[in-house]
Amino acid sequence: MDDNKELKNREEIDREKAEETSPAKSGSGKHYLTGKEVREIAKANAKEMRRFEKAKRRRVPESEYLTEMKDDGNILEIENLHSFFFTDQGVVKAVNGVTFSIPLNSTVGVVGESGCGKSVTSMSVMRLLQGPTGQIVEGSIRFKANDFKRDEKGNFIPVYEKDENGNVIQEPVLNKDGTQKLDKDGKPITKPKQLKDSSGIGVYEKEEKVFDIAKMPIKDMYKIRGRQMAMVFQEPMTSLNPVFTIGNQLDEVTLLHIPGATRSLAKERSIKMLDMVGIAMPERVYAAYPHELSGGMRQRVMIAMALAGEPRLIIADEPTTALDVTIQAQILELFNELKTRINGSILLITHDLGVIAEMADYVVVMYAGRIIEQGTASEIFHHPMHPYTQGLQKSKPTMKSNEEKLFNIPGNVPNPINMPDYCYFKERCDKCIGKCSGEYPHMVQVSPTHFVACHLYDSKED
Ligand SMILES: Nc1ncnc2c1ncn2[C@@H]1O[C@H](COP(=O)(O)OP(=O)(O)OP(=O)(O)O)[C@@H](O)[C@H]1O
Ligand code: SF4
Ligand SMILES: [Mg+2]
Question: Which CATH number fits domain 34-148+207-228+314-413: 3.40.50.1820, 3.40.190.10, 2.10.109.10, 3.40.50.300?
Fold first, then answer.
């Protein structure tokens, strides 16, 4: 009898807990959604999704999304970004007010546990969120692009070679048989000599423009995606097309993004790129199919492909997670080298603190769709301030530690559909104070570069 009573109590407690944490909890206290509620949510979502999809497809002049950087030393500025998924269970606030910048020639690492919104942030920057459910609903993503300049007719403008006096050098115009072409008076015909890059492809004028990516119609993203900004994904096998050779896939990037590139010049360039990313016998790899390569080689090919459009920003989402430890180290070394070689910046997304420590100049720590701490790599690693960052540091395995069991942060991330009004980390935090049950903590600046969102660091007046 007593046993039954205890079981009943246990069931009641479990039911209460399920109701508290249920994805479907809708204020009524029950832990499921009725068919009617699901239909109502779907109807409201459909309206919102239609509105965002329409905005994505509209045709607008470039001036509508041209903007200015807040700090000219940055290549990317993300401000108050909100990216949501409109699901039948409710709205998943995957990225909920994220603000950070990527300075020129630097690596910014985004770290946080699974599901905290790292990939959704990077997908938002590339405008690759899966619509119609996934949408950027608010915020700006300012990107300093170095786009090809066009004349009034919309043509690219060649850069010409000049002599020491600043005069454009002329070169002879040849007939098909290689002889000099002459005009009707018998004088040799010449044309201005276009500057060529190291692969022999003609150089065209470029100009800096700042685009607000969040406001750009999707079809205009071709100006940026692949050319100005490229992405390296976690799993190279699924990112490469198995039915085309590596060369075919690499050439396509050059042919698509570099004006004036011919098939033979694209091949020359692709082989150079393969060589640059440390592939021995690049000619052989050029002719190979993806399945003939090892995981590390495939990831190098993906990096070569990202570099082919000469991007200013490379977004690498867990680029080494699918690789073994020695290959991981080589790929990270390659990224470090490339940053200086391409004179660009890297946004590195990972849940691996070791990778971040090795690579990043600045670190952004995300938790449940928000940034809870950010600073230089040294600030985050040597002086972590947020209890979550401190927990992450403690849970990192070290060679020196004699502990038998690794530290783990107890509990789970709150349900993304029903986020609380107070600090999202409260249920897992061992440093809670009275204020923590109040409003969500705002960002506090603790050094010129170090910011933390935790009530422990609120100033006295707050
Ligand atoms: N297509 C989708 N529909 C609904 N929710 C989604 C979708 N894609 C992502 N989410 C939700 O958005 C949140 C953030 O996901 P995201 O993929 O950015 O996590 P992450 O930080 O990259 O995690 P991981 O380290 O596992 O890659 C998660 O709660 C996830 O469930
Ligand atoms: S605000 Fe409070 S609950 Fe949140 S991390 Fe800081 S101390 Fe912990
Ligand atoms: Mg991810």
Answer: 3.40.50.300
